[in-house]
């Protein structure tokens, strides 16, 4: 286990701080579908993703969802430790989209270090700025990009993540990622099918013309 | 001039850091309508608002706007110094909505202090978390609140800010705050007028039933 691979400022921590992390961190493997952090619940701690894939999303009172960002190998999840920041007034839910191996650093340990260490606090700043940038990108998408472009971008991204042009994904799940009703997704996917961009087949979406999907995404 | 009134961690800075701020900060008065920070331009520095009102907004390529948050007396504007954070990948525009008096701390001076001082870096963390929370609130509004509720909330907020139920504001300006086309605003305001919630009169919107507007906002 090499924390220095996950925490770029590892070398700027004191030996005591490094020891506190090593002694308190626990390794976990969470199965696909596990909700690691539930909206409104106490905070879990900082998560260091060793392998797998996490999804961070907003959940409305009536059960609607929208994906905020994803975390992959070597990413660090800050909002699983949002109690570290008093001014965070929102809740995100974090779920394992694939079986995920991670290190968990308890919030209390991380909090102590951040309070004392300027490099650690600045590292948290950069992590938050990076999450913030992803959310601002999303705001611009929702406000100013039409749904056909967002759907094309989503299908291409999923295809890249899965390493396949055949996606086993329901219209409802796509709707949850994009903050849209299932019916809207179905209508647009049928339009895509008529245009020869995808093929819909027994719970699968097959990308049949990636070049034109890409052109649509960037239009 | 008392920086300790604006910067809660003032007492945790070293005498050298305090002196660097005092010596480099400049007082400015910007007239209403001044764009202090333009999207895509170099960063100005940290702004401490002494009086007045600033608006931070997103601007699309084709000139559409949406208000992200506002800054009032004693607020500190971080995104006028977004160059302090490498991971910030978005641009906001900052404009004076009223004549505004402010202190400007150059980004280079603030950056040096944040790098060295854990309290300063943690303070920046809290500032960013608070801006982040406002943007997340906005995301939820856009996704999950219908436009009538957002418009009612906006009119009530404006009325509170102006200390008057008569607002000198065009439908186009309201649209810019809410990220919506002028026509959509006009249609909804006419509906509000029919319902007896507002009166539309020569470039003014007059709130005639605040109680019901509040009920609508919270519905």
Main beta sheet of chain A:
4 strands, antiparallel
Q: How does the helix and strand content of chain A classify structurally? A: alpha+beta
Low-confidence stretches of chain A: none
Rg of chain A, rounded, reads 19 Å
Shape descriptor of chain A? elongated
Q: Helices and strands of chain A, in N-to-C order?
A: HEEEEEEEEHHHEHHEEH
* Percent strand of chain A: 15-25%
The multimeric state of the shown protein is: homodimer
The strand count of chain A comes to: 11
Strand order of the largest sheet of chain A: 1-8-3-6
Instruction: Note the gap between the termini of chain A.
Output: 45 Å
Largest interface: A-B, 38 and 38 residues
How much helical structure, as a percent, in the residues of chain A?
40-55%
Please, what is the average pLDDT of chain A? 90
* Contiguous helical run count of chain A: 7
Architecture overview:
The structure is a homodimer of 219-residue chains. Chain A has 219 residues and is α+β, with helices and mostly antiparallel strands. Chain A contains seven helices and eleven strands. The first copy, chain A, has helices at 15-24, 107-116, 118-144, 147-162, 171-178, 182-194, 210-218, and strands at 26-30, 35-37, 46-51, 54-59, 65-71, 76-77, 93-96, 100-105, 166-168, 198-201, 204-207. In chain A, helix 2 (107-116) crosses helix 3 (118-144), helix 4 (147-162) crosses helix 7 and helix 5 (171-178) crosses helix 6. Chain A is elongated, with a radius of gyration of 19 Å. The mean pLDDT of chain A is 90. The A-B interface holds A 58, 60, 64, 66, 85-90, 114-118, 120-122, 124-133, 135-140, 142-144, 179 and B 58, 60, 64, 66, 85-90, 114-118, 120-122, 124-133, 135-140, 142-144, 179.
């Amino acid at each position: 286990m090499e924390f220095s691979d996950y925490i770029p400022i590892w070398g700027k921590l004191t030996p005591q701080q490094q020891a506190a992390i090593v002694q308190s961190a626990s390794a976990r493997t969470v199965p696909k579908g596990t909700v690691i952090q539930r909206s409104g619940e106490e905070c879990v701690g900082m998560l260091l993703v060793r392998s797998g894939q996490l999804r961070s999303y907003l959940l409305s009172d009536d059960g609607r969802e929208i994906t905020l960002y994803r975390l992959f190998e070597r990413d660090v999840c800050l909002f699983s430790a949002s109690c570290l920041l008093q001014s965070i007034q929102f809740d995100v839910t974090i779920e394992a989209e694939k079986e995920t191996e991670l290190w968990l650093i308890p919030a209390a340990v991380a909090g102590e270090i951040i309070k004392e260490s300027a490099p650690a606090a600045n590292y948290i700043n950069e992590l938050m700025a990076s999450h913030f940038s992803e959310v601002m990108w999303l705001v611009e998408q929702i406000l100013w990009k039409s749904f056909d472009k967002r759907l094309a971008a989503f299908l291409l991204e999923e295809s890249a993540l899965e390493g396949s042009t055949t996606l086993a994904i329901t219209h409802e799940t796509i709707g949850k990622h994009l903050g849209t009703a299932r019916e809207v997704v179905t209508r647009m996917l049928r339009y895509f099918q008529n245009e020869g961009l995808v093929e819909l087949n027994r719970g699968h979406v097959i990308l049949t013309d990636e070049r034109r999907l890409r052109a649509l995404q960037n239009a």
